[in-house]
Request: fold
Amino acid sequence: MVIEDDPNCQEILQNVLEESYNITVVGNTQEALLLLMDAPTTYSLILLELELPDDACIEFLKQRSAQSFLQNIPVIVITGEGDDNGCYKLGADEFIRKPLNTPDIILARCEHTMALYESKNLVQQTEKDKLTGLYTIDYFFEYLKQIIPLDMGSDRDAVVIDIEHFRLINEIYGRGTGDLVLAEIGAYLQQVLTTLNAIACRASADVFYVYCIHQDDYQELQTALQTILTHYIKVSNIRVRVGVWHYVERGMIDPETWFDRAKSACDRISGNFTISVSTYNSGLHSKHLREERLIRDVYEAIERKDLRVYYQPKYAIQGDKPHLRSAEALIRWIHPTLGFINPGDFIPLFESNGLIQMVDYYVWKEAAAQIRRWKDEYDFTVPVSVNVSRIDIYDPDLENKFCNILKENNLSPSEYMIEITESAYAENAQGLIEVLDCMRKKGFKIEMDDFGTGYSSLGMLTEIPIDILKIDMSFVRSMEKHEKNKRMVELIIDIAKFLKVPCVAEGVETESQLRALRRMGCDVIQGYFFSKPVAPEDFAKFIEKEKSLWTK
Reply:
């Protein structure tokens, strides 16, 4: 758009620009504003005559600074030889001086100014998260690296804010409410940034990072954010968690690690509703270093077979005497220097970073090879169930992996069972059903593990493809002490009967538990009453004993 009241100047500018651009020429700013208000995105550049009557150029620039729809359009002021009359301060981007007798320069300045604005707009679009108005994570860390050298004299904290169970907001209240909550939290953080001398970003869907001047206590921040949340959400287990690493070590540790550590503190209180603010400390630091070592060492552990697959027998208990029915493959890590590593220390870690896929695949192959060895040595088949993690379900090659493992070991699907936790069904029911339907068509048997802890609906159970229902050990171990847990066990056994599938109870440790489960109608038990998980060579005695019963 050319805003120019001199017909000669209008003609010159039109002749220079019309080969490259569509030109709108107006003689005054009132007409220009009407056109711009009607279609602001039509225009990529405004050329504005400085010497319009009644200081119209200055008034236009003032209006532009107040109108957001005009601020994205660059302005080149056309001026004589004199002063710019304060146009730079009012936001003018460039000047073209009269006489207009250098068309190449005019065209070059127009092109350069538009190119700068396009770059600026591109940065603005990617710099800020559209929903919250906070920085995106990439720009956050980039600006942080620029700020750090200028800010070495003050104590700083890395803060992570996480909305626990945020996905439930979208599921229960709808995505619109979820977006509104995130926008409100973003708006509040922007309000307090100046007070905290801070910058902030939306790091992921429901996680925010804040880099701020040191505060002794972040409870006030957590309370304010929780207030925003509870204004919209009435579900008690959705809450704001805050993790903090006080006095970040600038110059020694990269900013990404600061927030990894603050996130570790935040994750540590997941599920603990008595604490809402957690601080990264020396204990967490030691845990973090240990976890980093486990991540480094797992590759060598697989290569050296320091990761060992143990087997816990499962016994059918309906009948005169229990008999060996199958086994579960369970991973154990015997580290050359750290010794025995509890699975609870490394399995959740590998689930969080995706390494569990590699570990699971290793277990699947080892278990299949062991079934084959037992068949060859004892002429006896021990069906083995292997665990499939939630992340494995998203592997498009999952079915082929299992089929190839069976083919390599000359096994049938009936000799190889798949265990998936109930929580995996609850989190991604439809996707899981599709995957498992395909697996069952191949002949694989599917066990639902930890039943009773994953909040799946009873209606969903009729649609879920399962062949075996497995009662979580927490109910079994306490069923003789707590009537509610006993009733839960009875209920799960009744559900299995309704679905016409066998029921397995894990965590059985005493004969009285065995007798009670037999009376209730449970089909199979697993637990320390018969054996803890053992190495393959120690499991052989169960096969030998079972075979000896056949000959009697």
